[in-house]
Automatic annotation (TrEMBL):
<keyword id="KW-0966">Cell projection</keyword>
<dbReference type="GO" id="GO:0030288">
    <property type="term" value="C:outer membrane-bounded periplasmic space"/>
</dbReference>
<keyword id="KW-0574">Periplasm</keyword>
<dbReference type="InterPro" id="IPR001782">
    <property type="entry name" value="Flag_FlgI"/>
</dbReference>
<dbReference type="GO" id="GO:0005198">
    <property type="term" value="F:structural molecule activity"/>
</dbReference>
<keyword id="KW-0969">Cilium</keyword>
<comment type="similarity">
    <text>Belongs to the FlgI family.</text>
</comment>
<protein>
    <recommendedName>
        <fullName>Flagellar P-ring protein</fullName>
    </recommendedName>
</protein>
<dbReference type="GO" id="GO:0071973">
    <property type="term" value="P:bacterial-type flagellum-dependent cell motility"/>
</dbReference>
<comment type="function">
    <text>Assembles around the rod to form the L-ring and probably protects the motor/basal body from shearing forces during rotation.</text>
</comment>
<keyword id="KW-0732">Signal</keyword>
<keyword id="KW-0282">Flagellum</keyword>
<comment type="subunit">
    <text>The basal body constitutes a major portion of the flagellar organelle and consists of four rings (L,P,S, and M) mounted on a central rod.</text>
</comment>
<keyword id="KW-0975">Bacterial flagellum</keyword>
<dbReference type="GO" id="GO:0009428">
    <property type="term" value="C:bacterial-type flagellum basal body, distal rod, P ring"/>
</dbReference>
<feature type="signal peptide">
    <location>
        <begin position="1"/>
        <end position="22"/>
    </location>
</feature>
<dbReference type="Pfam" id="PF02119">
    <property type="entry name" value="FlgI"/>
</dbReference>
């Protein structure tokens, strides 16, 4: 059986292994408004590198940073002195501040080279303030760097594995400032769906009302459900949110076909349907082969010249084509895949067929190419 048939069988088996629809927890398809991470960024220096740091001639900002750091540490003004160190690298430090992070909590940071350093292995990050979008300092990072990649080079060859100019420091920063967010001050909690959909939002509101009481939840729009906090439970907002996020909902989704043309991957959603169409797929293969020959009509001793005589062979192979009927819009996903497999297509040909069916207006689904 051809590649497409094997792929189609795998798709059918995948969908057969799971029920057509399944209930999922609200926490798996939505988030609570205001409960989110915040991005932090900072600029710092990594020292202690074994000659793999920035070349100060190509990275003048590194030299300026070294001078400023030494001046802050009481070494004095070194602007008139020429620094020639190669064991320091300028880096950008990024981190995610978790929701409700408290003073003194550790967070992970990522360190990325900013100059022309070849590796950060063995280095140590010097105290680096991390600021948020509002310019306030929320954490301070420092510590030894762990690099997953490596680089080795000689006079005529080099080997690089991974990215040695990007590193991670586990628990490398300490929270110094908290993001103000008081749950007890809320009169309602809004739930934001990761994939906005009217049907899913309505089902979610109905499920919450069934569990928490009538008129507790309202679907404001396809992406937002508001849960009112009233009565005796208002003082226990964390408990209410815990109950809400564990309620199970049957989410709905738009019928979609996703195609990755680079790898030939095709994912067909359960609700994808097509009109009854006839499909024919054929191809014309033209092969051109060059077989040049060397001709020596006269001996070289009497002035003969060697010439190359071109020889070209052209062949044409036309595949036999036939029509296959793809069933109408009321068929299941398995029958649709079986019909595509019956044509005997490769993954690339299947992609072309799906695009043509969409262009003909017979594919009732979104066609997304990534």
């Amino acid at each position: 059986m051809r590649i497409a048939a094997c792929l189609g069988a795998a798709i059918v088996a995948l969908f057969a292994a799971f029920p057509a629809s399944s209930d999922v927890r609200i926490k798996d398809i939505a988030t609570f408004e205001g409960v989110r991470e915040n991005q932090l960024v900072g600029y710092g220096l990594v020292v202690g590198l074994n000659g793999t740091g920035d070349s100060l001639r190509n990275s003048p900002f590194t030299e300026k940073s070294i001078e400023a750091m030494l001046e802050r540490l009481g070494v004095g003004n070194m602007s008139d002195d020429k620094i020639k160190t190669s064991n320091t690298a300028a880096v950008m430090v990024t981190a995610m501040l978790p929701p409700f992070a408290r003073l003194g909590s550790p967070i992970d940071v990522v360190v990325s080279s900013l100059g022309d350093a070849t590796s950060l292995r063995g280095g140590t990050l010097i105290v680096t303030p991390l600021t948020g979008a509002d310019g306030e300092v929320y954490a301070v990072a420092q510590g030894p760097i762990a690099v997953a990649g490596y680089a080795a080079q000689g006079m005529a060859a080099s080997v690089v594995e991974g990215v040695p100019t990007v590193a991670r420091i586990e628990n490398g920063a300490t929270v110094e400032n908290e993001v103000e967010f008081v749950l007890s001050s809320l009169n309602s909690v809004r739930i934001a769906l990761r994939n906005p959909d009217f049907t899913t939002a309505t089902r979610m509101a109905d499920a919450i009302n069934k569990r928490m009481g009538t008129n507790t939840a309202t679907a404001l729009d396809p992406g937002t459900v508001e849960v009112a906090l009233h009565g005796a439970g208002k003082g226990d907002i964390a408990g209410i949110m815990s109950d809400v996020e564990n309620i199970r909902v049957d989410p709905d989704a738009v019928a979609k076909v996703v195609i990755d043309a680079r790898s030939g991957t095709i994912v067909i959603g359960e609700d994808v349907r097509i009109d009854r169409v006839a499909v024919s797929q054929g191809g014309l293969t033209v092969m051109v082969r060059e077989d040049p020959e060397v001709s020596q009509p006269e001996p070289i001793t009497i002035g003969g010249t060697t010439v190359v005589v071109p020889r070209t062979t052209v062949g044409v192979d036309e595949q036999e084509t036939h029509f296959t009927i793809l069933e109408g819009a009321d068929v299941s996903l398995q029958r649709l895949v079986d019909a595509l497999n019956a044509i005997g297509l490769t993954a690339t040909q299947t992609i072309s067929i799906l695009q043509a069916i969409k262009a003909a207006g017979a594919l009732h689904a979104d066609l997304e190419i990534i």
